[in-house]
Amino acid sequence: MNGSEARRNGSGRTRVRLWRWRSNPLRRRDDVVEAWIVLVMWLVVVVGGALVGLVTSHAADEMFARRRAERHPVRAVLVTDAPYDGTARGGTSVRTLTAVRWTADDGTARTGRTLVDSGLLAGSRVTVWLDRHGALTTEPTPVGVATAESALFGGAAALALSGAALATASLARRHLDRRRLAQWGKEWEAIGPRWDQKTG
């Protein structure tokens, strides 16, 4: 099988790779523009997607790390019972907003409301989380979960940029196709009558 046969697809047409970049009498200005659109699109998808994904993942990692550094656990005591919630399924722990009391760094007693496991009685000891200002907050995301979520955020950002690039390129190419069809129509209006005269 020679080179020309190897380039033929199932429909019998010959594919010429990178034809828009090659100088030939059939190539139009719109074909060159389309070639640049496709090139820029793939650069944005491959290079831009990778950069955006890495930057987003790194930013998310830093956010999770900052939260872990700013929050610390303390022991607290339930001031009231945590009502039991019977909606738990499959051993899942249901948490309810309950009043707790703890001792601040300056030795003063503080009270507040935070989420604890339901079903606990007043006087039970629990672990609560405080922010850098000493206010009750939620537990920071564990390292393993934070790493996975950062990767997901990065992947989502890369996919979003790639999708936007593909959509923009598709719209631009559709616009070029409409222009080419319009040009072909005008050329046929000019050439068609002469063609009919020759064949007649």
UniProtKB/TrEMBL annotation:
Top-level lineage group: Bacteria
What's in the keyword line of the UniProt record?
Answer: Membrane, Transmembrane, Transmembrane helix
- Membrane-traversing stretches: 32-55, 151-172
Name this polypeptide is given = Integral membrane protein
Source organism of the structure = Streptomyces echinoruber
